[in-house]
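Quick one: C-alpha cells for this chain, please?
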Amino acid sequence: MDTDSRVVLNVGGIRHETYNHVLKKIPATRLSRLSVNLTNYDPILNEYFFDRHPEAFESILNYYRTGKLHYPTDICGPLFEEELDYWGIDSNQVEPCCWMTYTLFRDTQETLQIVDRMDLEKRVVSFTEEENAKRFGWENDFYNGTMSFWQKLKPKMWSLFNETNTSPLAKVTSTISAILVFASIGTFAGKTMEFARVPQLYSNSDTSKISLLPGLEAVDGAKYPALVFKDSSSFVGAVFYIDLVCNAWFSFEMLNRILFCPNLAKFIRSPINLIEVVAISSFVVEFLLEQVMKLGFFTVLDTDNTRDVIEFFAIARILRLFSIAQYYTPFKILTETFRASWRVLLLILFFIILFVVLFSSSVYVAERLVHNPENSFSNVFKGMWWALVALCSVGYGDVIPVTFAGKIVGCFVALGSVLATAFPVPVIVTNFTNLYVHMRARNKLPKERRLVLQLHELNPSAAASSSNGAGNPTFKTIRSTAQQLGQPRDPSVLNA
C-alpha cells in the first residue's frame, strides 16, 4: 500500500527514512503534502532533498513519530523556530518540559531588542551626507543636488553638541560640558557653606532699622550704642563667577541645540532638556533679583528666606547629572532594567502599601489594649510612618512599640519586610545581568558584518538552476558574483 511505503528524506546531506502514514499524522504541513511532482523529488535516487538544517530536522521528524515537540538544547532558538516555520509546524506546540528552553529564547530576543534600542555603542562613527539628509528630512534636496549651506551646516552642528562619537571636537565639547556640570553642582553645594556667604550688616545709626535684642528694653528712651545687625547675605565673588561661567556655557549649548535640532517638538518634550531649561532659568531669576534689590526695589523681599525659596529651584542643577548619565552605558542599562521590571516594581509597591496599612492599624490597636503612658502611636499615621521605616529595614527608633502586643506586631513587620523587598529583588538583578552581559557581548562583535548574498542577487543562471531543484548555486557562480561585487572571498567557503 502507498500509505505504508517508505519515504527517503535527504535534509542537508543526511538521509532520513520513515513511512508515508507517519508524515500524514500532522496535516497541513510541508511533509504531509509530499508528491513526486515536487521539484525537491529526485527520481533517480528516489528521495526528497531539502537544503535545511539537518540537526534541527531530527527533532521535527521525531515530532511526527511521537506527536511530542521537544526543543533541542544545542541549537539556537530563533534558528529552530525558523525551521519550524519552514516545515509548517506551530512553535507553540512545545512540550511542558521544554517551556524553560522556549521562554529562554524569547527572553533573549527581547533583551537583544532592548540592547538595539539603547544604541549603547554607536556602530557608525560619523554619518554620511545622505544619512544626515534622511535624518533631517531633506532626502529630495539631497538627491536633486539642491542642498543649501544651512542644510549642510545644521547636521554638523547638531552632531557637535549631541553625538559625542562623531568627531574629536564633539568629544571635547562633551568633556567641557561634563566638567562644568560638576563645577555647577559644586558651586550649588558651596553656597550652603558659611564661608561662602558675606553678611550685609548695618548699625543702629540707621533709626529706620533699629531694633532691640530679645529680652532688652529701652530705659528713659536711651539707645544702645554701636549695635550691629545682619540685614542679609551675599555670596563670595569667586562662587558667583564660577556659576556665571557654567551657566553661560549651558545657555550657549542649549541655544545651539534648539537652533540645530532635527525635530523641535521632540526636543522640547525631552525631560533632560526641560531640566536644563529650569536650571538655567533659576540662575537667571536669582541674578536679576539680586540686581533689582541692589537698586532698592522690592525691599520687602530683601531677606534670606526669599532667597532660600528662589534657590529651591536651583535643585534642578543637580539633575543635570542625568544629562551626563544618558551617555554612560551602565546608567542606560539601569534605566532599561527598571523599565523591563516595571511589573515587579508594581508588585513591590503593592506589598508595601498593603503591609503599611495592615501593620499601622494593628500596632495602633495593640498599643492601646493596655494602659500605656508611653504610647507613641497617637494616631494611625504615626503607625504608617513606623511601618514604612521598619519594612525598609531602616528603623530610626523615633517611634517604637513598648507593649507585648505591639512587639508581636513588630515581629510580623520584620518578616513582612523580607517578603516585600527580598523576593522581587532577584528578578531585577537578573534583568540587569542579562542586559549587561548582552551589551558586553555585542561590543566584542565586529562592527562590520560580511555581506551574505541572497538568491535574487545572484545572476539569472544561478537562480534558474536553484529553482530547478539544484538547491545551491555553483562554485563558479559564487566566485564570479563575489568578484563583481568586490567582496572578499572566504577560502573556507569556496574550497568546500
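The chain has 21 helices and six strands.
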